[in-house]
Amino acid sequence: MDQQAALVNHYRCDRRKLLEFLLSSGLIKELRTPSGPTNSLSNLDFDSISADYIIHCVESGGVVDVTEATCKYSDESAYPVTIHSQTRSSYFLVSDPESAGSPPRRAPPPLYAKQAVDASCSSSQVDSVFVEKAAASGDDCGPGYEPATNAPPRPLGNSEFPVPSLGLPSLKTGLSDDDLRESAYELLLASMFFSGVEANSVEDRRKEKTSKFLSGLKSKRDKMQSQSQFVGRKSELMDTVRVQMQATHAISIFRCTISEAMDACTRRNLMQLAARKMSGQIDLTHIALGLLNGTFKSDFLNERSYMQWKSRQANILEELLCSATDTTTEHLTIRNYVAKIRDEKEWDTMMSASERVAVVASIRQVAVKLSSLPTQYGIQGETFYWTAIYHVNIRLYQKLLFGLFDVLDEDQLIEEADEVLQIIKLTWSTLGVTEKMHDALYGWVLFQQFVRTGGSVLLENAVLHLQKVLSTEEDDGKEQYMNSLVCTKHCNSSHLKLHLLQSIFVSISMWCDYKLQDYHSHFSQKPCNFRMIISLVSAVGVLASGESGDLKNFRAPESYLLDPMTYPELIFCWTRKLLLVTLPVCDLGSKIKYLPIYLLTLEIDLMKLNASDANASRKLKSYVEKSTEAAFRKVASKVDFESKIERIHPLAQLAKELKLIAETEFNVFNPVLRCWCPESVITSVVLLHQCYGERLKPFLKGVSSVSGDARSVLPAAYMLDQYLTKLYTSALEANKLPNSFNQDFEHYQIEEIAKPFILDWVISQHSHILEWTGRAFDIEDWEPLSYHQRQAASIVEVFRIIEETVDQLFGFNLPMDITHLQALLSVIFHSLDAYLMKMLNHLVEKNHLYPSAPPITRYAETVIPMIKRSLVVGTLLDENVACKLNELTIPKLCIRLNTLQYIQKQVAILEDGIRKSWGLIRPSHEQRQTRGEVLEERSLLTSSEAVDALFATTCHIIRDTTADAIRKFCDFTGARVVFWDLRDQFLFHLYHGDVGSSRLESFLPHVDTVLDHICGLIDDTLRDLVVLSICRASLEGYVWVLLDGGPSRAFSDSDITMMEDDLNEFFVVEGEGLPRSLVEQEAKFAQQILGLFSLKTETVIRMLMNASEHISLRVESHKHGHMALEDAQTLLRVLCHKKDREASRFLKQQYELPMSSEYDDTSSRDSNFGSPLIPDLLKRSTSFHWPKKDQSSFKSIRKKLQAATSEIRDVAR
């Protein structure tokens, strides 16, 4: 209780906080109180305000009226708690929902439910009126098949088949189901009292106990107090039985028949009766007479209850005594006495107490005379009433057994079922029930309850009890006694007599036979029930059938057929396949002898299921055929309506439904049926295939393209054909059956019809995709799609179009060959290749980025003022090139690189997807293999190699082209950063004038800024490539500064040391940049150039002289712009930039080069001009390349180099 109170307080606190938040969050326009509008919430009682009203005001944005909110809360509190069920109904509870338990699983039945009978069972040809006749005869076969039952009947639909009745003899007095239930309860009490067990009653309180219905009405504390007041466990169990029957009846007709007061009176009278009768067995007539003697009108609450009770006792007496005697005189005497009991005026008013006692005594004399008659079978405890009134005994016993089912959870037994069952067994001696008979009736009752509720546990228990019946062996007397309990089956307007056990088995078998003819409909929702039904059929037997599947009914020549209704004196006894017809011939007082007349052969068999029995296999096969046909008819009848809802062609919808039927057959029903019928799946699959093929053929004749209805029907038909083929072959392999594929299957020819249409469709998509690709590229602005998706939007659109095409193609779910794959890959190749070519066409050559070549000078210092010459300015860029350069900014270059990388990734994904989809298509050669044609391994290998070759010529080429484009864009990006965007900060500033004041460290912050910007834009997988390209371009620019830096750059030996230090830390950044080994490898050429500057001037001059001897050969190699490290041009430029007098003097004397001081190198160099000096200076080799354009500038120098070399050699000699 403390915990519950804490939870309530916690809930209220949370509720107050929620309401306070809603009212103070600004979602409410105005808060009105009785004293007027207010903004204060301190005076509000949140516990008395309707939360639903506040939420409604928040949603509508209206005004909150506190008075109305309080009224709403008050109104809501007055309503009971409701529980919404899945059937869209609400249950109003006046008690705690938790203690009351869950609501009923099924809706309550209507007050006057009529049972619709569908007896059109083709396999049994049972007369459609046999159920009605059985009900009219008063056969108490259980709930749903009588005017009234122990539990509320479930209304049967038109398609449902009731359990055939047992065919017990009818009740002549019209005893109702309520009368039988109350009499059964009185018998149960009497049996307990006569067995020496006391069962005290409590009149001043309710006697709810431990069934789920009762446990839901009281709390645990109440139940503990209630239990403590009962005297003895037996008394508790009887209270449970009484309330169970009382609750069952109250639910069915809304009134209680076994009231507490009446129960107390009944117990009192029965206890007195048991005390007076100390020996002998109790029978039903003595119970009824004893109650008539000891019960008075004053014991009842109203006169109506008394009259109903008295009428029931009179009917019981008449039914029992008239059924037990055959003489007309005794019948008249009994009916006369019973009529007096029924007559209210005569019995209660006119007759005195002694006269009433006399009437009861007269009836008792008849009952004693009958009970003293000799028994027939010599069973211990047997009485004359066992066989005389067996139809009443069996009905009463069934009522007791039906009381074991929980009222609210009808597919479950009450918790005390085992204990109550032991009490019920006390009635065996009175009702003539044996162990085998009990198991049969209990299994029959469980089976009926399963039919009503669908409870799997009930069916399982029913199977166990019926199997126990078959395994139980009783002595001959009990067997003969069981065979004497005759039941009547109506068949073809004739009457067939069966003993009780056979009647139970036949009734169950007939119901199972009907259900198994459409097991797809009845057992798809609960497959476990199907397995149990087959187990049940294997126990009780299945109706034998001929080739046509019809029941072999009772047949006899008309001249020999005696109708039992015409000759009621005939007694029929069923023994195996013979019907023994006997006629009473004499009456010898207490003994009756019978003379056999003739034997009629019956052809009604209950065939046991046996895997080796061909007849059983044929019977199950007929079930498979009929159920499959019924399932097909069912879906075919609804397919037009469902196709309109799904908006697809009816044939496509039908194929989907049939696939589900086949799947259910294979996964659910076949594992059960294959033990007795291995070909069950094959039978069902072939039948479904044929039925659908008949409807498909007319449609295929009108197909002209893969569009419209054909777009949905052809794939659905092909998938159904493939799936049914798969199930067929799987069943053949699993059961090791002979392959008769060609005889059973005729494929739908979808492949031959669809192939040309599919190829035409793929070809038609080619121009469409190319058009969309070009349009997407032309409108591209090269901005990132999002922060996380940094590629261009156009490439996403291109791949979307391609993927849609691929999905549509494979979404056809139609057979294809390698021609279709080739056409698809061709479309993809041309689309992506066109996109890549457009992207590469927007790229310009790197030589447009390089600055113009400076003049070659020698280092010389002068203090004489002179007019300095200006540097030569390069030519203007072409307008088209300039326009492209303006578009190729660093951010847009990064987006282009990201786009190329996206192409690489998506091509791989696309290839994997196409390969998987192609593998699922299963080309036609695999179908041929299924049909029994063996394919050579070489042909399969060739097909696989052809597919790999197709992917190699498309996806691999696209990847190679994309990788080459990435390399080109990376190289251009590095050149753009160094030679275009940072040319002023790097090329024109590095080592300009004085090395110490313009070292590399002043340039690095600009590079860091650019790198940070690029790393924020570029894809992570491309970052190192772009940084490496910038590193290479920077080293290329560094060499440009060393060899072609212009008149303002001259380097001394001390400068070289600082320059080497700069180069060692270039792009390494204290170990956080590029790997040092990679930088060192890329900087190798620059290091070698610095090494030339470190050499002595004489050494460089000597190297220049040696190189000049091969200058003519070197010039020839300039066709490719190649220059080696020790090339004469390289060595000459090293001398030009050495701050050395000897080098200057050498250059002046030999080449007459002007002094560097004669040029003005301070003028700005417009980056819009470009006549590159070295467009591709730095490669991975130790050489660099000069452009062909610059070769002309060395023509005049070449002659001077050759002349100078000759002169120097002459001097040296």
UniProtKB/TrEMBL annotation:
InterPro entries noted in UniProt: Munc13_1, Munc13_dom-2, PATROL1_C, unc-13_homologue
Chain ranges of the MHD1 domain: 711-843
Residue ranges of domain MHD2 in the record: 997-1104
Listed name of the protein: MHD1 domain-containing protein
Lineage of origin: Eukaryota, Viridiplantae, Streptophyta, Embryophyta, Tracheophyta
